[in-house]
Amino acid sequence: MSYLDEGHTIKSWLTSTDHKRIAILYAISISVFFFVGGAAATLIRLELATPAGDLVSHDTYNRLFTAHGVIMVWLFLIPSIPSVFGNFLLPLMIGAKDLAFPRLNLLSWYLYVAGGVLVLCALAAGGVDTGWTFYTPYSTMFSNGYVVLTLFGVFVTGFSSILTGLNFIVTVHHLRMPGMGWFRLPLFIWAIYATSLILVLATPVLAMTTLLLVAERLWHIGVFDPALGGDPILFQHLFWFYSHPAVYIMVLPAMGVASEIIPCFARQRIFGYRFMAYAILGIASIGFLVWGHHMFVSGQSMAASMVFSLLSFLVAIPSAIKVFNWTATLYKGSLRFEAPMLYALGFVGLFMIGGLTGLFLASLALDVHLTDTYFVVSHFHYIMVGGTVMAYFGALHFWWPKVTGKLVPDLWARIAAVLIFLGFNFTFFPQYLLGVAGMPRRYHQYPPQFQVLHLLSSAGAVVLAIGYLLPLFYLAWSLRYGQRASANPWDARGLEWETSSPPPTHNFTHPPQLPERVYDYDPTSPRAVAQ
Amino acid sequence: MNSTLAEASSIARSTDLLFGAMLLLCGVMAIGICFVLLFFCIRYRAGNRKVDRGVVGRKLGVELTWTLVPLALFIVIFTWAAHDFSELYRPPADALPISVEAKQWMWKLQHRNGKREINELHVPLGQPVKLVMSSQDAIHSFFVPAFRIKQDVVPGRYTTLWFTATQLGEFPLFCSEYCGSSHSQMIGRIVVLAPADFGRWLQAGTSQPSLAQYGYARFRQLGCSGCHAAGSTVHAPALEGLLGRTVHLQDGRTLVADENYIRDSILLPQKDVVAGFAPVMPSFAGQVSEEDIQGLVAWIRSTGGPQGAPR
C-alpha cells in the first residue's frame, strides 16, 4: 500500500507525520504562494511597459514589488526545494524510514503556513511598501504599511526553516543506512545537508533582526535611528548576514538537483564527485563571509569593501567548478533530452550567466555604477529564478513519477521547459542592458529612453507566465489520466528508485541494496526509453 | 541611451575599460561553456551511433587547472577593480565643495557662496567637485550614470563623493536607494558649464550669505565662540584649519578630522575627546539643524587646513 492510500481524509493529511505527505503539503502551499508572487510580478511588468506609471499608483506599485519580493523569497524560494524535495527524498535517498523528528517536521509545516498566512493578512490589510529588504530608517520611521505584521510573518516562517534544517542535519548524521559513508551520499543530500547548516546558523540572525526592527518601530529603542545614537547601516549588516547566505539556501539545493538529473540523463558518472562535494561545503562556508558586498556604496569603510570583494571572488571559484563539472559529465555519455534534462541544462546555462554577472558586481569600481540598478535585478533573478526555479521544475518532473506514481506527458513538459527558458531570457536579459544604461531599480515611473528594453522585458514575462502555467494543467492531467510509472522509469541510480512508485508508508518493504558507488551509470549500456 | 550613458567624468573612461575587460572575459567564458555544452549534447546524444562512449574517471589535472586558472584571473580583476575604487574615494585637496541634502523626495544643493538649487546641480567643466552629503530622513543614493558614480546618502552622517566633469551638457541624476512613495520622482540633472559660464552662473542672483558666513554667524549665535575662540577663558581646541588635520585623542587614538568628525563633535562631543582637553562640551543635538552643521563645517573649511581627507 502506498503512502497515498494511507488515508484519504483531510485530517489524515493534516495530522500526518510521514515526510512524504508533509512534502506534498509543502508543495501545495508553496505553489499557492508562487502564483500569488507571480501575479504581483505580472502586474509589475505590465506597469513598466510604459514609462508613465499609469496602471497603478506609486504606492500600489511599491507594495506590489514588496509583496513580490517577500513572498517569493521567504515563502517560495527558501522553502521550495528543501521542504518539498528534501523532505520527500532525504530519507529515501539514505535508506531511512522517515526523518529523525517526524512530528517536528509537521510543526515546521504549520509554522510555515502560519507565517505565510500572516504575510497574506498584512497584504490584504493594505500591504507594506518597504521592499523585501526593510532598510531602516525607512521601515522604522516612514513606511506607512503593515511592517510589523509582515515581519512577524517572516519571523514565524524563519522558525520553520530552523526546525527543518535541524531535522535534516540530525537525519543525515544518524539515519544513513549501514555502510553509507559520507562520500557515498548523493550530491543532492550533500546540498541539502549544507543548506541545513546555513538555515540553522543564519536564520536566528534574521529572527533577531526582525525583532530589533519591530522594537525600533514600536518603541523607538534607538538601535537603528541615528537621532538616538543608532546606526542605519547596522541594520544592513544584520540583514545581509542572513540574506546573503539565504541565496545559497536557494541555490545549493538547486545544484543538488542538477547533480542528480544530469548523470542520469547522460548515463555517466558525475565528473569529479569529491570536488563537487567539497565545492558545496566551500560555497556554504565562504557564503557566510561575503554579506558586505551588498554595501559597497553604503558608506562602509573602504577596507571592509575590499575584504568583502575579495571573498566574493573566492566564493565564485567553487561555483565555477560546479558548472565545469556538470558540463564535463556530458563527455562520452549517452544523452537523452526528456523534460528533466532540459530543465537541468537550462539551469546550468542560466546559473552560469547569473554567476558571471555576479563577478561584475563583486568588482568594486563596477559595482558603484551597477548596484541598485536593473543589472542587480537581472543578476539575482538569473540566480534565483533561472537557477532555483528551473531546478525546482526539473526536480518536479524528475521525481513526479516517484511522488505520484504517474508519468508526466513528456511532449508538453518539453514545450513548457523550452518556453520557460526562452521566456526567462527574454524577460531578464534586457534588464542587464537597462542596468548598464543606468536605469535604477524600484522605479514606478522611468525616463522614456528606457522604454524599449522595458517593453521587451514585459513581453518576455508573458511568455514566461505561459510557461509557468502550462505544468499546472498537464501535471493535474497526469494525476488522473497519466500512465502508471514503474519503480524506476528513468533507470536511475539512487536508493529512492529502489522502492515502488509511489513508495509505501515506511519507504521500503525490504532494505535496499547499497550500491557499489554513487552514480554508477554506464554510457555503453544505455537505458530503455522511459515506459 | 543619449546623455544617461555618456562618458562624462574623469573616472568614466577607466570604469568602462574595466567593464569592457570583464565583458570580454566573462563573454568568452560563457560562450565557451555554452559551445562545449551544446557540442557534447549533439555529439553524445543517445541516437548517435558513431561515437566513442565510456565511463570517464577522475582527472585531477583538469580539475586543478579549472580551479586555479579562474582563481588567478579573479585576483587580477579584484586588484584592478579595487584600485579604481580607491580612486573614487580620494578627492583631490582642491576639490570644490558642494553640500547636498537629500530628503523625501528632492535633492537640495548648496554652493559655497550660499547659492542654492533643487534637483539641479551646476558644476564647472574640468574641476574636481566634492559633494558632502547628508539625508534628512531615509537613506537615499546619489547616482549619476554618465559619471559612473553612486553613493548612499545616509541620515546621521556625512558621505562624500567626488568627480571631475569632462563633458559639457546635462546629465540625469537619480536617487537609486529606495526611499518611499515618490522614489522614482526623486530625479534631477547635473548641468556641466564651462568654467567662465559657471562663474557667471554662480554669481547671478545671489544675495544670501555664503555657507561659511552663515556657519560663522551660527558659530557665534550658538555660543561656540565663547569657548572655541582664541583668548577664551574656557580651554577648548581651536577649530581653524582643522579639516584634514590629524587629531590625537585622549584615549590614545588618532584620527583625521573629516566632516563626520566635526559633525560627531557637535552632536556627540563625548565620543572623540581631543587629548589635553576636559570633556566639558555639551551636546548640541536638537539645537542645530542639518543646515547649521553644514554651515559650521563650511566655516571650518574656509579657515584652511590640509582638507581633502581620505574617507
From TrEMBL, chain B:
Q: How does it sit in the membrane?
A: Multi-pass membrane protein
| Cofactor(s) listed | Cu cation
This chain is encoded by the gene named coxB
NCBIfam families membership: CoxB (TIGR02866)
* Key words, A-Z: Copper, Electron transport, Heme, Iron, Membrane, Metal-binding, Oxidoreductase, Respiratory chain, Translocase, Transmembrane, Transmembrane helix, Transport
Recorded source organism is Ramlibacter agri
Q: Which GO terms describe its molecular function?
A: copper ion binding; cytochrome-c oxidase activity; heme binding; iron ion binding; oxidoreductase activity
Q: How is the cofactor bound?
A: Binds a copper A center.
Q: Which residues form the Cytochrome c domain?
A: 210-304
Q: In its UniProt entry, what is this protein called?
A: Cytochrome c oxidase subunit 2
